[in-house]
Structure formats: structure tokens, C-alpha cells
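Shipment paperwork, digital attachment
Item: protein structure file
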Amino acid sequence: MSISGINNYNNVLFQWQGQQLKGSTSSGSKSSSSSSLESLFGNTSMTSQLSSMVELTKYAMDAMGLGSDSRVTFNQITKYREQLQTEFSKSVKDGLANMGISDLAGLSFSLDKNGALTAVGDNASDRKAAQAWLDANPALGKDLRKALTEAGIDAEDAVDLRVSAAGKLSVINTTSDNIQAALDGKASLSADLRAALEKLGVDVSKGLSFQFDDQGNLAVSGDVEQAEAVNQWLADNPELADAVKAQLEKRNVDTSAVSLRLGGEGNVQISVNNAELSDIQAVLDQQGAVGKKLRDGLDGLGVDPNINFSIQVNDDGSVTIVSDHADRDKVQRFFDENPDLVKKYRQIETLSSIDDARKAMQIAPSDMRKRIQIESMSAWWADSGNANSYFGNYSGGNLSLLAGLNLNV
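Attachment content:
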């Protein structure tokens, strides 16, 4: 990503590009010092140029947080401007990167009875970006709720769902997720079961399933050679079964609706059958177009890191982004929502105009330091009301300002 500025000085105190600053002169013959100035600067008044230069320098000092009795050099102003540019570039880079969603898999969505979708997730930035897009595309949620209603699904209950990388919508079994979280919080129960099965010589590399029997006892399911020994261990060590039952009782779920599975690695995974959720999933399976639009829309929130654009400052202080890239409007919105960043850019632009002013005066920084000895700048600001309140004398290759100004440039 590259950023350039289109300097529009309509909003800046002084406009140096293409500007001809003129100062008042007497109708009489010019002094030798005036002739020297004219030979150096042509027809441009040195007094007018220095007046504008002082005002720009005063702006720079204000931006840098310096008082009128402070001292500042062109080098210090340049370094400060470079610091602002570095901060600005980093803020823009980070800000545009955060416009996208860093982890779409970490988001889920809740559909309320009115068809409004709400983004849910731990990452506040991702959640905010997704919600803004959802609010701008309300038809998606309304279409989903309409399809569910037509299928006879109760509209009073919220539906929680996820979207896969392929755009497939899946209903979330909240009960199953909550119980799973509780089991994950007691990982030692899974570890103990795995260790016991290994001692019994049971191969769990391909996974092993468990269910509650009619008496409420947890037992291995399927054709397992060591089933009797495994079931005996489960009866002698009921901690896992008791933990699951406690969670089921909290949610008024019968043990017959539950199955457990221990895979080759990780904790025991639980599944809770729910006929209503199955009906909802059947409806979502028919909403492929909605799921794809949701996924593609959220995926497209980010800004292309290779985008090139320019920044133009308008008369009212706002900025316009100039680019032929498809993400141009996203960048424009980013700056519209970050006025402090726009302010920093305007500071950079104005500080840059000081160097433009120096170049317009055709004086190198080293010559400027030798030729312009400004002492007591604050006195000049307090006493001068126009460009003729002081005068300069250019002689012998040196310029002296005869008003004792309190600033070194």
C-alpha cells in the first residue's frame, strides 16, 4: 500500500505553490539593500515572504507544543514532520487492516424473531465490523426467518448459527456447546479415561463412543472386545458420568438424547440430539445462496493491502480519497470515521509547506541559518500587525532582521 498527498493549500495559512508574494515598495529609487534583495529573489518581496515564513513557523511551533519564547530550527521541524508521517502511516496501515475480520471462524450469529442478525464473538473488532455489515444488509436475516416460519419453526425462539468457509449455514446446538465447555473445563476426566483404556489394551486411535443405558449408566457402545472391562471401569469411576448428568439436569435434557465420543486425541466430545434443531438445519441446508452471500460479504470487508491512493484536502478540512481501486470507498469511510487522523495529515501537509516556502525563497537550509538570525520572535508577534513592521538588510551575502526576534530558524 502506498499513500501520497495531493497538496491543496486552500485550507492552509499560506499557499506557496505558484504563489507570487508581493510587498509594498516606495515609488522612489530603491536602496542598495533592496536591490540586493531583488537580485536574490526577483520581484518577490523579501518582507512578505519572511512574514509568511514566520507565520508558518509559528504554526509549526504550536503543532509541536512549543511556546512563543522557545527556539526551533528547520531541522527540528523536519524531524517532527517525519515523526508525524511515521505515526500517520502506521495508523493508516493498522486501521485499514482492522476494517476486515481477522477470524471469521470465531464469529457466530443469532437470528431473532424479527429476522435481525447479531454477530457474536470474543473479538470486539471482528464483532463490530461484522455487525456493521449485517446492519447494512438486513434482507439476509429476514429471508432466513421467513424460510424458518414457512417451515413451521417457532419464531419466538432465537436461532444461533455459524457459516463455514464454503458458505454453509449450520445451526448451533447451544446445549451441546455449553456442556462441552463444562467438560473441557474438567480435562482430567478425559485424561483418566484415556489412560484407563490404554491399560486395558483398548485402541482409541479411531475413536470410541459411549452412551447412557436404560439404568442411566455410562457404557461403551459398538462392538468393542474389552467392553465388559471398560464398562466395569466406568462403573467404578463414575466421575465422568456424574459430570455429564449434572449438566444435563441443569438443562432438563434426558440422558437418552446424549452420546459421548473419545477420539485419538483431545477431550471427550458430547453430542445432544434435538429434533427441533434438526428441523432448523433442514431449512438452513436449503439456504445456500444466503450462506454464500453472508460469507462472501464478511470476507470482503477488508481493504486490499496493495491499494494505492492519494489524499486531497478539501476547503472544509475534510479529505477526499483519490483512487481507481475497488476498495476506494472503504478507505474514504475509514478517514471519515477518523477525524484525528485527518487532523494529523493536515499538520503534516502544513509543516511540509515550510520547506516549500524555503525552496520558493531559493535559500538552502545552511544559507537560511546564516542569513536569517531571528531573535525574540515573541516580541515580533506581539508588536507586528503587518509585513512592514520590520525590515531586512541584505548586504555582503548576509541578511539581518533589525527587530530582535525571539526565534532561530
